[in-house]
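Side project, low priority. Logging it here so it doesn't get lost.
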Amino acid sequence: MTHVLLVNPWAYDFTAYDLWSKPLGLLYLGAHLKRQGFRVTLLDCLSREDPDSCAPENEGPRKLKEAGCGGYCKEVLPKPSFFASIPRYFKRFGMPKERVLLRLKHLEPPDIVCVTCGFTYWYPGAAVFADILRSLFPKAFLVLGGVYPTLCQEHARSLGFDAVVSEAHPLRVLEHLEKLLGVRFGVRNLGDFFAVPPAFELYPRLSYGVVLSSFGCPFSCTYCASRVLAPSFFQRPPEEVAEEIRYLHERFGVRHIAFYDDALLFRAEHHFLPLAENIVQLELPISFHLPNGLHARYVTRDVALFLKKARFVTIRLSLETASPERQRQSGGKVTNELFEEAVRALQEAGFAPCDIEVYLLFGWPRAEKEEIIASVNYVRSLGFTPRLALYAPTPRTQDYDLFFAQENEPLWHNKIAFLYRQGLGELYARLQGTGKW
């Protein structure tokens, strides 16, 4: 039986936190491989529930800890020389390296190793693993996939893997693997792909579950690469998603589930509202979380009522900026009027202001400092908590082509590095406080 090892490497970064973070694409891949009779092993270096993990110094806010989230183990490393001026420690987040090496040494040698890499600036984890795997398993065929090789194809090919899958679309990924493995997955469309539950059973235990009820996004924001990673938009049957939620609870005992959707509420009358009705009918003791943020234009009164009724407890709205001009420039996803209608609907449904956080994009090159401050004050004037989402330069987006086309080092895509490179570190720290400016 062919042995496939799936690897989610460490995160090399200034900061990292397990906010319902699972390598969902890798887990779907594991499920399809198992379905074809492959023996599959998972090594997720960012799994806090793994026996080889260790207790972090800081678990984070109590509310997030209770929802299954938490901090990672970390080790301070020497900073890359070009980060010398950044007043932060550079770290490796995840399981201690010596424990990972020991586990690999006791592992039955895999025939194929599939390594994923999400953020482009987390590529050092994949690079280190390429060297480790070459040393320990010289006969294994090494494959790199994920967001990083999709957005930074040439750079990814320099890491020394035997094959690089430079497309993140699930069907294209399976097509690549069919050629490499000499197997037919029998997946004709996205419906077939998502009909198989992710292989969460590869984990020893779970403190939360994650669900993807739709794939892609109908919008084309200038700072987002969603259309590159998922050129088409697809919504799963609501009944199928509800069944997956029931399975996660009954099989793994999870009481917290996060949705990974980029556009959960798009065509809500055909997707979210039937899904919420199905969730309510399940009558399960599960709390749901929306870390990616909701499109305010789709938060109607009916939607808000079902968010409350179905026990969605982490509500984040995407505003990005309160400047009407910038809203138009970025793709016209939202206006202040639509945003205010959304928060009114949520409050009428029973959500308190403290239950609602609002994403504002901080460090976006199109926005001036004064606009950032005005946006923060606008959100606070309405009684809500602004959550500053640090802008990170993302290859193959309109903004990246406009501002960063000559940048060849993916580490500079790091949101913390870019924050200080822009000279915005002090302003960010001050805006994180309370009160108006």
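Brief comment: Residues 238-252 form the longest helix (15 residues).
Revisit when time allows.
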